[in-house]
Write a structure and sequence with these properties.
Radius of gyration of chain B: 27 Å
Number of strands of chain A: 3
EC number (chain B): 1.-.-.-
GO biological process, one term (chain B): ATP synthesis coupled electron transport
Protein name (chain B): Hydrogenase-4 component B
Number of helices of chain B: 25
Number of domains of chain A: 1
GO molecular function (chain B): NADH dehydrogenase (ubiquinone) activity; oxidoreductase activity
Distance between the termini of chain A: 44 Å
GO cellular component, one term (chain B): plasma membrane
Strand order of the largest sheet of chain B: 1-2
Largest sheet of chain A: 2 strands, parallel
Oligomer: heterodimer
Number of helices of chain A: 11
Strand content of chain B: under 5%
Order of helices and strands of chain A: HHEHEHHHHHHEHH
Structural class of chain B: mainly alpha
Chain lengths: ~325, ~675
């Protein structure tokens, strides 16, 4: 009986992230539009976009291979699983121990690996340029991310997200310099990984500096829908991760009862709203940087992660 | 019932017999099938005989043969460590033999390959079995020479002679270092048996010197920077199944030598030696994968990636040394098991990738990826197996490369318990460089697979390629399945490896098979756990769910059309991204620092119709900084000494006289 309810909670979590992901992106877009004094599309526009794409037929390039056709599903599945394993409203979910933070980061790596391959499948120069820049960004973002993970794991004594969240919600954490560095590093990595300003511009198409959009240029119809959905989920994943690791207040534990779940979910959605405000404000206030400035940006994230980890090795109180 | 070690020696004897048979029949057309069939059978038998020793973790069995040094004899011993490496050698040997059954038929000069192939296998088996310094060195040299002969199989091809020469020089240098190391270990008493060395006490300075010599000797064979320069020359020069053996297996035999001496014979380690191993390991990992990224020859790319993986393994062994020196037995067992696991994994996927490269080579005649492309349409099965290898080597879940890298990272997270400041500062930097190497490896294999198998064909030979034979495919798929199984069931592999850690370190990782759902839990569940099986099931389930719902309720229509490309459809395949352009961003970020990479655009003057050209200039820091000066000095001395060759007889006589007087003087002063 307990197992069934636990699995049920896990399923709720999977559905929750799936349903919230497009809404979150829609909300960010809406706020950005309002900040620019535009009216902006409805916050539900991403759902409509997805439905429209799903109903359309797929136009495949003549020499597209099977890899090109399965990649959208693989990346979508990998990102969804990763997003479903981050505690949002409750820790200690049934399957949370099947992958710790390092494995979750690597899952996103799998998704990117296949997407970069798919970008090269048709053999157009746009796909090549996108894949090439994507792997360059990943080559810097992934180590930065892992160092951030090391730093957090050393403080919490675990790479298990549930344990980390429980520890961070407790009073023994206090304010630590290393945690602050790790958080900034994670935010910088999240901006780069989600192709947000200042690294890439999610709103442009056909611009020479674009990365992510160039890579998926050949996709259409339901394949594009899956990739877009994956991108929504990835953004939600990173925001949930930041919330779960650094702001886990009001997060509840599995088995605490429906009222507690509701409170946890309410707090989670509130935190998401705050995060989307911050993201939109930041993106509106910042300009996109040249591609070869990105390594400096991510190098800074890498150094912050390394410094945070080193501080942790030097003294337990930082 | 003969003992386990005797059974292994019988297998070796049969391999040597196969060599003789191969020499006798090498001109016959059937000999390819006979030799590879025989080595396949023998490798499988040897594998089946050594696995029980590893799993059961029983007592070591020994055997002394009355050959070798007259007062010593040849000692052989089979313990858990040897059994593990025998399993690696024979699994690789079996796969390479199976592949050779098909691939060998393309061989233009089979009599240059067939006799040496079983000899090479026998040599690797013997190194692992040897239990005294003399036998070890003899077998080590036998293995080196047999592999050298295989490197020189196609000696008329450009650069192969140079590769063979550099390999021979480096192998001799490595053996010299090993000779000195064993000399130090055996001490003044001359106890050449490993049992005597194990029992003897070694002073710290002596132990440090032995470790340095082992890093030179075994490290040069394994491909540790800066002694790796021969590896990307020699490994690709051999026929592909031999390349697979050299990269996937022989480097592991070298690591075996390192582990045997440093963890087994040398006694308790010192923490400062761990720092050296950690620095060398992580530097090797980053340098190796960066060199691989810059490479456009598929087999050389794989050879450079071997160097990266050797770096990961050495870094992990360095961690094990650091923990062991501080008495943190459990953490040491974790790091050591991670190293062994990565050794096993690397032998799987590197052999698989070399087989794939061999299939591409036999089908198109090309190793240069810039002339390939679009092979996924013409070699669907090969490309699938190669893709599995790429995913596995890029350390992506749910395949095996990730499982072992995950264990390495878990070991790094144990390091705040280390007391020494040197290690405290070193270990996070090692973690950062391993993470960087893993991310760059993914980039490297996106390039390797993407340029070779995806896109449009860049040359007529790539256009006309066809699928390879069944034996080659069977070998590739067998290894791909092993990569997958070791990835989703890592707990079972860890349990098999644990007796080795127990025997050498006195500690082992907790038993994993009893964990629920076959997860792996290095320390305890609240700290970290990973379940490859569940991750795989989740991904498959969610992907199938998505496919089902979309095809059932949304559209499943497909239309084929020309590629979109923003309307700029490139008429020629040459307009695609090439390997060189693919790595341009990474070259600008890392290459300017490491390889002094420079790009020049040669722009013709106005009115001139020649195309503009982009030239990339890169320098190998290790070769130009270390080897070129040494080789220059040797040439300089040789030139000077050359004058001695053309003297008159009177001058020779006076030289002899002067030498004699000098030597007598030295002797007089000495005594």
């Amino acid at each position: 009986m307990v197992v069934i309810s636990d699995i049920l909670v896990q399923l709720v979590q999977m559905t929750l992230v799936l349903l919230l992901a497009p809404l979150f992106t829609g909300f960010v877009r809406k706020i950005k539009a309002r900040l620019l004094r535009r009216k902006g599309a409805s916050v539900f526009q991403p759902y409509r976009d997805l439905l429209r794409l799903l109903r359309k037929e797929v136009v495949l390039a003549e020499n597209a291979s099977w890899l090109f056709r399965v990649t959208p599903y693989i990346t979508f599945a990998a990102i969804w699983v990763a997003a479903a394993l981050v505690p949002t409203f409750a820790t200690g979910l049934q399957f949370s121990w099947s992958a710790d933070l390092i494995a979750i980061v690597a899952l996103l790596g799998s998704a990117r690996f296949f997407l970069a391959l798919a970008g090269m499948d048709v053999g157009t120069s746009f796909g090549g340029i996108g894949s090439s820049r994507e792997v360059m960004i990943a080559a810097l973002a992934e180590p930065a991310m892992l160092l951030m993970v090391f730093c957090v794991a050393l403080i919490a004594g675990s790479t298990q997200l549930s344990t980390v969240a429980t520890f961070m919600a407790s009073s023994e954490v206090g304010l630590r310099i290393s945690l602050g560095m790790a958080m900034i590093a994670l935010i910088m990595v999240a901006l780069a990984e989600n192709a947000r300003i200042p690294v890439d511009n999610p709103a442009t198409h056909l611009e020479l500096t674009m990365v992510h959009e160039a890579m998926i240029l050949e996709y259409s119809g339901r394949h594009l829908a899956m990739i877009e959905f994956g991108a929504f989920l990835k953004l939600l994943f990173y925001v949930s991760l930041i919330i779960c690791v650094f702001f886990p207040w009001q997060i509840t534990i599995v088995g605490a009862g429906p009222a507690s779940y509701l409170a946890g979910a309410g707090a989670y959605i509130f935190k998401l709203a705050v995060a989307s405000l911050l993201l939109a404000a930041f993106e509106t206030a910042t300009a996109k940087m040249r591609v070869f400035r990105v390594p400096e940006f991510l190098g800074a994230a890498l150094m912050l992660g390394l410094l945070g980890t080193l501080l942790r090795f030097v003294s337990r109180s930082f | 019932m003969t003992s386990a070690v005797a059974q292994q020696l019988w297998c070796v004897a049969t391999l040597l017999g196969t060599t003789v048979l191969a020499i006798a029949t090498s001109r016959s057309r059937r000999s390819t099938a006979i030799v590879y069939g025989a080595t396949l059978a023998i490798s499988l038998i040897a594998l089946s005989r050594c696995l029980p020793v590893l799993v059961a973790g029983g007592n070591a069995t020994e055997l002394v043969l009355p050959v070798g040094l007259p007062w010593l004899g040849a000692h052989f011993r089979l313990d858990a460590l040897a059994a593990f490496f025998l399993a690696v050698v024979n699994l690789g040997g079996a796969a390479a033999s199976l592949y050779g059954l098909g691939y060998g038929s393309h061989e233009t000069a089979p009599h240059r390959v067939l006799p040496f192939f079983p000899a090479f296998l026998a040599g690797m088996n013997l190194v692992v079995l040897a239990d005294d310094a003399f036998t070890f060195l003899l077998c080590w040299e036998f293995m080196s020479l047999a592999s050298w002969a295989l490197v020189m199989a196609h000696h008329r091809e450009a650069d192969n002679a140079r590769a063979g020469y550099v390999y021979l020089v480096m192998a001799s240098f490595g053996t010299l270092a090993l000779l000195l190391a064993f000399g130090l270990l055996s001490g003044a008493g001359g106890g050449y048996g490993f049992a005597t060395m194990r029992a003897a006490q070694h002073s710290p300075s002596e132990a440090g010197l032995v470790l340095a010599l082992m890093l030179l000797g075994a490290g040069s064979k394994a491909g540790l920077a800066p002694l790796h320069v021969w590896l990307p020359l020699a490994h690709p020069a051999a026929p592909s199944h031999v390349s697979a053996l050299m990269s996937g297996v022989m480097t592991k035999v070298a690591i075996y030598g390192f582990i045997r001496v440093v963890f087994d014979l040398l006694g308790p380690p010192n923490w400062s030696s761990a720092v050296v191993v950690l620095v060398l390991g992580s530097a090797t990992a980053v340098l190796g994968i960066l060199s691989a990224l810059m490479e456009k020859d598929l087999k050389r790319l794989l050879a450079y990636s071997t160097i990266e993986n050797i770096g990961v393994i050495f870094a992990s062994l360095g961690l094990a040394l650091a923990f062991q020196a501080n008495g943190l037995g459990l953490a040491a067992a974790l790091a050591f098991t991670a190293a062994l696991f990565h050794i096993l994994n690397h032998s799987f996927f590197k052999s698989l990738l070399f087989f794939g490269a061999g299939a591409v080579l036999s089908s198109t005649g090309q190793r240069n990826i810039e002339t390939l492309g679009g092979l996924i349409h013409r070699m669907p099965l090969t490309s699938f197996a190669f893709l599995v290898g790429c995913v596995a080597i890029s350390a992506l879940p749910p395949f095996n490369g990730f499982a072992s890298e995950w264990l390495v990272f878990q070991a790094i997270l144990q390091s705040p318990d280390l007391p020494q400041w040197g290690l405290k500062v070193m270990v996070p930097a090692v973690g950062a460089s391993l993470a960087l190497a893993a991310a760059l490896a993914a980039a490297c294999f996106v390039k390797a697979f993407g340029i070779t198998f995806l896109g449009r064909a860049r040359s007529p030979v790539a256009e006309a390629a066809g699928e390879v034979d069944r034996c080659s495919l069977a070998a590739m798929f067998a290894l791909a399945v092993l990569c997958f199984l070791a990835g989703i069931l890592p707990g079972l592999v860890i349990d098999v490896l644990s007796p080795v850690a127990q025997a050498l370190l006195g500690h082992r990782m907790p038993v994993q098979a009893s964990d629920p759902w076959l997860s792996i839990v290095p320390i305890e569940e609240s700290r970290s756990s990973y379940n490859g099986l569940l991750v795989f099931v989740f991904i498959t389930a969610t992907a199938s769910l998505a496919v089902y719902f979309i095809h059932r309720f949304a559209s499943h229509a497909i239309r084929r059309g020309p590629a979109w490309g923003c309307g700029f459809t490139d008429p020629t395949p040459a307009a695609q991204y090439s390997g060189v352009s693919f790595v341009q961003p990474i070259r600008r970020v890392f290459g300017t620092l490491v390889f002094q990479a420079r790009e020049h655009v040669e722009m013709p003057p106005p009115g001139d119709l020649r195309p503009a050209r982009l030239k990339v200039e890169m320098h190998d820091p290790v070769w130009e900084g270390l080897y070129a000066p040494v080789s220059g000095a040797v040439w300089f001395l040789a030139d000077r000494l050359n004058q001695l060759q053309f003297l008159t007889i009177r001058r020779y006589l006076s030289l002899v006289f002067a030498t004699l007087v000098t030597l007598l003087l030295v002797l007089a002063i000495w005594s």
